[in-house]
Amino acid sequence: MAHTAALGGSRCFIRRSGGQCVTMAGTCRMLRAKPKGVHKCHHGEDAGAVCSDPPEVRLVNGSNRCSGRVEVLHNQRWGSVCDDNWDLDDAEVVCQQLGCGMAVAALPRAQFGMGHEPIWLDDVNCTGTEATLSECRARPWGESNCNHQEDASVVCQGLAQLRLVNGSSRCSGRVEVLRNQQWGTVCDNGWDLNDAEVVCQQMGCGVAVSAPGSAHFGPGSNHIWLGEVECTGAEVTLSECRSRMEEPINCHHGEDAGVVCSDPPALRLVNGSSLCAGRVEVLHEHQWGTVCDDSWDEEDATVVCRQLGCGTVVSAPGAAQFGKGRNAIWLDDVNCTGKEDTLLECLARPWGTHNCDHGEDASVVCSGYVTVRPPQPLPLLPLLVLIILPVLMLVCGALLYQRRRRMQNRSSNFPQGSVRMEELVVSDTYLLMPGEEQAAAKVAPAGDADNKRAQHSL
Asked: Name one GO biological process term (predicted).
């Protein structure tokens, strides 16, 4: 509880910071006092002060005490924190205050369920360097314009700190966790990409590329702290996964697990008309920062557009065309060839090394999101032709085949020496059937005699 002293008509609020009692700025007037050593007192009148402890903080409804909905204790009552302006800087202070390592996520909208008690804090604005949440700027206690659907949450790295060793970068290597102030390895029994995915996410190293076992990055030398790790891939920290933690674990250091992460820096374009245009910002050490426009050109912008899935580059403006950033300037003298997949692959000065100000922030305008056109349906008429034509051909073929079979059957049924009716007509001349040939022969002489008589009379 806060203590006050009525001195000279003013109320002086006192709190403790870093183990010492200090006055809160702006709440006390300058108090008059006699010069040092001048007094009319004895030690029975020695003054004292009672300072309030920083309000207690806890995380509830998470998988462990280092993740969950943020609640603070005020007036002997727990209450939640509104997510207005809630970000990683605020979460960082909570994690440090709880001794839970670094902040991994600052989640809004009651991700760990809605609280039922008061909403004590709103518009919290920490720089990330404060020792306790009470040192951050915020509205007065209990003043908010929120409901419990806006309760803020935090996920911290956890009590078990994590590192990757013996790899080519901080995002690859043998997995080690810190327990009891001592680093130890993870057994590769059941170790797979789902487990590696959680490690990469916890380390801020992009997505998992591989999950090598068998001490791929060399054997460890201390404890084997975890075995039979079983993550779904959706966890935020390795401590949230099922695992065997009790020693002895049936492993040796020839089975130490490893991880290789992609390590693309988080990237965004801000202050533009869409997500594909704006000031370039990258995430490093849990803080967004800008890119200096020294040497910034369309090759660099091409990589940004490709990494964001925003099509092709339209322009690569500099001179803070989309407004000035306010945080760190993370990259300078970026030099891409235009063929890289991520900005991380381009040459640049070391992180945070630059000779720029925010008036030189680089920007990008991309053509827009790349969309895959769905296959167009075939027109109806060609589709019908494609379906009906083979059917018609099949039917016609069957009919022709049946006709030929009938004709063959009819031919086989005629008596020997007979011919079909079709064979009786050849070039309009009728052929006589075999039985009629003799009758024709008998008629022929009479016809010839008549012809002779006609000619004689002439």
From this structure: zymogen activation
pLDDT at 16: 36
AA identity, residue 232: T
Q: Extract the tokens encoding 138.
A: 């915020």
Greater confidence (233 vs 450) lies with 233
Distance CA 204, CA 403 (A): 79
- Residue pair 150/134 in contact by the 8 Å Cβ criterion: no
Rounded Cα distance, 12 and 8, in Å: 10
Alpha-carbon gap, residue 207 to 195, rounded angstroms: 11
Q: Matching CATH topology for 161-261 and 266-366?
A: yes
In tens, the pLDDT along 384-435 reads 777 788 888 888 888 888 877 777 776 666 555 555 544 444 444 444 445 5
Asked if residues 353 and 292 have their Cβ atoms less than 8 Å apart, the reply is no
CA distance linking residue 318 with residue 332, whole number of Å: 12
**How far is Cα of residue 146 from the mean position of the Cα atoms in its chain?**
29
Instruction: Supply angle C-alpha 128, 51, 124, rounded to 5.
Output: 30
What's this model's pTM, rounded to 2 decimal places?
0.36
Q: What angle do CA 288, 119, 14 make, to 5 degrees?
A: 85
244-283 residue pLDDT tens: 776 567 899 999 999 988 765 578 888 887 778 889 998 8
Pick among 3.10.310.50, 3.30.70.790, 3.30.420.40, 3.10.250.10: CATH of 266-366: 3.10.250.10
**Rounded Cα gap, residues 204 and 211, in angstroms:** 16
- Inter-CA distances, 386 with 72, 288, 376, 391, 394, Å: 72, 58, 17, 9, 13
The set of residues, in sequence order, having a beta carbon less than 8 Å from that of 357 and lying 6+ positions away, is 329
